[in-house]
C-alpha cells in the first residue's frame, strides 16, 4: 500500500472505531430500555395477568444492563480522583436497587447512557485536515541538474537552492522564485485571491499552488514545514491544541451537590431512623432531569440544524455559538461565488456590444484562462456565436493575439495593448473608474484600433447582503471580511454587502492572527471560509464554519460546523438557534433543580414516599423533554424557502 493510500484510509479506520463504540452503547441502551419498558407496561396494563416476580425480573435485568456501564465509569472516575455526574447517578442507582425499585433504576440509567452518547465529542479532524494540506504538494519534483531534468522525491531529496521545472497543470512542490518563463498561477489555496496571478522571472511562488499556462523554472527557497503551505499545516495543529474544552454547566455544581445530598440523607436517618425517608431523599435527588437538561435541548437543536443542511461536528459548540458577537468571513468562495463573471462591456464609440464580445471570444477561443471562460459563458447566454481563429498565440502574462477574418486582434492587459501601439485614450477615463471599482479589465483591439474593454469580477452571492443584515439584527457587532485580494476589490465587495471592517492582502497566518486579535479584544468569534487559506483561521476561531458543499477538505476538517449548501443565511439561523438552545438549557436546569429542591425538602419531612419520589423525578424529566422539543420545528419556514 502506498503512503497516499495509507494516509487516506487511516481516518476511515478511526471513524469506524468511534462508530462501533457508539453503536454498542446505543444497543445496550435500547435492549435494557426495552426490558424496563416491558416491566412498566406489564404493571400498567397487565398487572393481573403477569406475575409481579416476572415484571421485577424484566426490570432488574434491564436496569442491570443499563447500569453496569455507568457503574464502570463511576469507578474509573473515583480511581482518578474525580467526581462527576456518573457518581451521582451511580449513588442513586444503588439506592434504587437497594429499595428494589428496578424500574426507577432502569429509567435513570437509560437517560444517562443516552446522555453519554449524545455528549460524546466527535473528532474535529485535525489530522485529516493536515493530511489534506499535505496532498496539495506533489510527491515528485522535476529537478534540473547540469541541464538535465530528473525526478526526485519532493519531501526527501529537494533542498533549498535547487532549480525545478513545473509544467502547465502541475502544482509547485516547494516555495521559490521564478528564474525562467512566464505563467499564470492559481494561488487561491494560499492567498485567497479570486484571480489567478501572472508570474514572471523574479516573482515568488508557493508550494501547493497550481501552474496554469506556461512552462517555468524556479529556484527553491523553502521546503517542507518551512513553506507557506507547511506553515498552514502547523497553524492548524497549533490552533486545535490551543482549544479549551467547554465545561458543562452542571459540572459547576457537582462538587457541592453530592456531599449536600449525603448530608441531608444522613440527617434524615439520624433524626427519624426511617429508611423509607432516606431512600425517598436519595431517589428524589436522582438528577435525571439535570442529566438530560443539556442533551435533550442539543438533540432538538441538531435535528433542526440538520434539516437545513447545517452539520454540527462538535455538539459542545452549540452553547458557544450563542455568545458569538463577531463573525469573520473569507471573501472568495464564501461571500462571493469564487468564479469570474463579466460585469461590464464597454465598447468604444461606434462599436456594438455584440461585436465587442464576438471579437474577444473568438480571439480567446483556445485559451483556458478563467477570463476566457467567463466571456464564453456570457456569449452563449447572449446568443453570440464565435469561431476558432485562423492563427492564435498566447503571450503569457499579457494576453492573446489572434488572426481571423484577415484582422489582427489583441485581447489582454491595457498596458500590453498600449505597448503594442494601440491608442486607449478614448476609453482611458472609463478604464480608471472600473479599476477603482475593483474590476479586472481586459482590453480588445483589432488592426491597431481599440474596440473597448470588458470588466470582470468575482460574482457576489445573492444572499450575502441579507445574511450580513440578519447578523447585525442579532446583535453581532463585528461583521468582518479578510481576504488575500487587493484593497480595491475587497472594498468594492464590502460596500455592496454591508461589511464595514475589511482586511485585504492577508496570507493564512495573517488571517489567523486577525482572529486571535478579535478574541483577545473580548469577542467570541465565528470564522466562515472554504479554502485551505482559511483553515488556520477556522481552527483559531471559537467557532469555525466551513462552506462544506464546495469548500476544500482542509477547511471542512478544520471547522466545527459545515454548511452543506451555500446559503449564508444559515449562519444567523445557527446563532439564533444556539441562543434558543442556551435559553432552554437554563430553563431545563431550573426545572430539574426546582423539582429536586422541593422534592428533597418534602421527602425529608416524610411527605413524599420513595414511589412518589420516583414519580416526581420522572415528571421533571418529561417537563424537560417537552420543553426541549419546542426547538425541533425551528427553521421550517427557511426550509420551505430553500
Layout of helices and strands, plus pairs?
Blueprint: H1 3-45, H2 52-79, H3 85-98, H4 102-119, H5 126-134, E1 140-145, E2 148-153, E3 163-166, E4 175-180, E5 183-186, H6 188-191, E6 197-199, E7 204-205, E8 210-211, E9 216-222, H7 228-242, H8 251-272, H9 275-284, H10 288-307, E10 310-312, H11 317-321, E11 326-330, H12 331-335, E12 336-347, H13 353-363, H14 370-382, E13 391-395, E14 399-404, E15 407-412, H15 414-419, H16 428-436, E16 440-446, E17 449-460, H17 464-473, E18 478-482, H18 487-497, E19 501-503, H19 508-520, E20 525-529, H20 535-540, E21 543-547, H21 553-558, E22 561-563, H22 570-604, H23 610-628, H24 636-641
Parallel strand pairs: 11-18, 11-20, 18-19, 20-21, 21-22
Antiparallel strand pairs: 1-2, 1-3, 3-9, 4-7, 4-9, 5-6, 5-8, 10-22, 12-17, 13-14, 14-15, 15-16, 16-17
Give me some keywords for this one.
7-stranded mixed beta sheet, 6-stranded antiparallel beta sheet, elongated, 24 helices, disordered N terminus, 642 residues, Calcium-transporting ATPase, cytoplasmic transduction domain A, alpha+beta, single chain
Q: Report the radius of gyration as a whole number of Å.
A: 32 Å
Total number of domains: 5
CA distance, first residue to last residue:
44 Å
Write the CATH fold name of the largest domain.
Answer: Rossmann fold
Main sheet attributes: strand count, strand direction, barrel closure: 7 strands, mixed
Give unreliable regions as ranges.
Answer: 1-18, 118-130, 238-248
Return the CATH architecture of the largest domain. 3-Layer(aba) Sandwich
The CATH class label of the largest domain is: Alpha Beta
Helical stretch count? 24
* Quaternary structure classification: single chain
| Overall strand count | 22
Question: Mean pLDDT across all residues, rounded?
Answer: 77
Q: Strand portion, in percent?
A: 15-25%
Query: What structural category characterises the helix and strand content?
Result: alpha+beta
Within CATH, the superfamily of the largest domain carries the name: HAD superfamily/HAD-like
Amino acid at each position: 500500500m502506498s503512503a497516499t493510500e495509507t494516509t487516506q484510509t487511516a481516518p476511515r479506520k478511526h471513524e469506524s472505531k468511534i462508530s462501533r463504540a457508539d453503536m454498542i452503547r446505543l444497543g445496550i441502551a435500547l435492549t435494557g430500555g426495552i426490558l424496563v419498558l416491558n416491566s412498566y407496561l406489564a404493571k400498567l396494563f397487565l398487572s393481573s395477568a403477569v406475575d409481579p416476580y416476572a415484571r421485577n425480573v424484566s426490570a432488574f435485568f434491564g436496569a442491570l444492563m443499563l447500569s453496569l456501564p455507568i457503574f464502570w465509569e463511576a469507578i474509573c472516575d473515583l480511581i482518578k480522583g474525580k467526581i462527576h455526574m456518573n457518581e451521582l447517578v451511580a449513588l442513586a442507582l444503588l439506592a434504587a436497587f437497594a429499595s428494589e425499585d428496578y424500574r426507577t433504576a432502569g429509567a435513570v440509567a437509560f437517560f444517562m447512557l443516552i446522555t453519554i452518547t449524545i455528549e460524546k465529542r466527535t473528532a474535529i479532524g485535525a489530522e485529516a485536515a493536515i493530511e489534506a494540506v499535505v496532498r496539495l504538494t506533489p510527491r515528485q519534483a522535476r529537478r534540473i541538474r547540469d541541464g538535465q531534468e530528473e525526478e526526485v522525491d519532493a519531501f526527501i531529496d529537494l533542498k533549498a537552492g535547487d532549480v525545478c521545472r513545473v509544467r502547465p497543470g502541475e502544482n509547485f512542490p516547494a516555495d521559490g522564485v521564478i528564474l525562467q518563463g512566464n505563467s499564470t498561477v492559481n494561488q487561491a489555496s494560499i492567498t485567497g485571491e479570486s484571480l489567478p496571478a501572472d508570474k514572471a522571472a523574479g516573482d515568488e511562488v508557493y508550494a501547493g499552488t497550481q501552474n496554469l499556462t506556461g512552462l517555468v523554472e524556479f529556484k527553491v527557497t523553502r521546503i517542507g514545514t518551512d513553506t507557506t503551505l507547511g506553515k498552514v499545516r502547523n497553524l492548524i495543529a497549533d490552533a486545535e491544541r490551543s482549544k479549551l474544552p467547554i465545561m458543562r454547566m452542571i459540572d459547576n455544581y457537582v462538587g457541592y451537590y453530592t456531599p449536600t445530598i449525603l448530608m441531608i440523607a444522613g440527617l434524615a436517618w439520624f433524626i427519624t431512623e426511617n429508611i423509607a425517608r432516606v431512600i425517598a431523599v436519595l431517589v428524589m435527588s436522582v438528577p435525571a432531569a439535570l442529566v438530560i437538561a443539556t442533551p435533550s435541548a442539543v438533540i432538538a437543536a441538531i435535528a433542526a440544524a440538520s434539516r437545513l443542511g447545517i452539520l454540527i461536528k462538535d455538539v459542545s459548540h452549540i452553547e458557544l455559538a450563542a455568545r458569538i458577537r463577531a463573525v469573520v468571513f473569507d471573501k472568495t468562495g464564501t461571500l462571493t461565488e469564487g468564479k469570474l463573471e463579466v460585469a461590464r462591456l464597454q465598447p468604444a464609440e461606434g462599436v456594438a456590444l455584440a461585436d465587442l464580445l464576438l471579437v474577444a471570444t473568438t480571439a480567446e477561443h483556445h485559451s483556458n484562462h478563467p477570463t476566457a471562460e467567463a466571456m464564453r459563458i456570457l456569449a452563449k447566454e447572449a446568443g453570440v456565436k464565435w469561431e476558432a481563429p485562423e492563427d492564435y498565440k498566447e503571450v503569457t502574462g499579457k494576453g492573446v493575439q489572434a488572426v481571423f477574418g484577415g484582422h489582427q486582434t489583441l485581447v489582454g492587459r491595457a498596458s500590453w495593448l498600449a505597448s503594442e501601439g494601440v491608442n486607449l485614450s478614448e476609453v482611458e477615463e472609463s478604464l480608471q473608474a472600473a479599476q477603482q471599482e475593483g474590476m479586472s479589465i481586459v482590453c480588445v483591439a483589432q488592426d491597431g484600433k481599440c474596440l473597448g474593454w470588458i470588466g470582470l469580477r468575482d460574482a457576489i452571492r445573492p444572499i450575502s447582503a441579507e445574511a450580513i443584515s440578519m447578523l447585525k439584527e442579532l446583535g453581532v457587532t463585528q461583521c468582518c471580511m479578510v481576504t488575500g485580494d487587493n484593497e480595491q476589490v475587497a472594498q468594492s465587495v464590502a460596500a455592496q454587502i454591508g461589511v464595514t471592517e475589511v482586511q485585504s492582502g492577508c496570507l493564512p497566518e495573517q488571517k489567523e492572527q486577525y482572529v486571535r486579535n478579535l478574541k483577545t479584544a473580548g469577542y467570541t468569534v465565528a470564522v466562515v471560509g472554504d479554502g485551505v487559506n482559511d483553515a488556520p483561521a477556522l481552527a483559531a476561531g471559537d467557532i469555525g464554519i466551513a462552506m462544506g458543499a464546495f469548500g476544500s477538505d482542509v477547511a471542512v476538517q478544520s471547522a466545527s460546523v459545515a454548511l452543506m449548501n451555500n446559503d449564508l443565511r444559515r449562519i444567523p439561523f445557527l446563532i439564533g438557534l444556539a441562543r434558543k438552545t442556551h435559553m432552554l438549557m437554563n430553563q431545563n436546569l431550573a426545572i430539574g433543580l426546582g423539582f429536586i429542591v422541593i422534592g428533597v425538602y418534602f421527602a425529608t419531612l416524610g411527605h413524599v414516599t420513595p414511589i412518589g419520589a420516583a414519580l416526581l423525578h420522572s415528571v421533571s424529566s418529561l417537563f424537560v423533554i417537552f420543553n426541549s422539543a419546542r426547538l425541533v420545528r425551528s427553521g421550517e419556514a427557511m426550509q420551505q424557502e430553500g
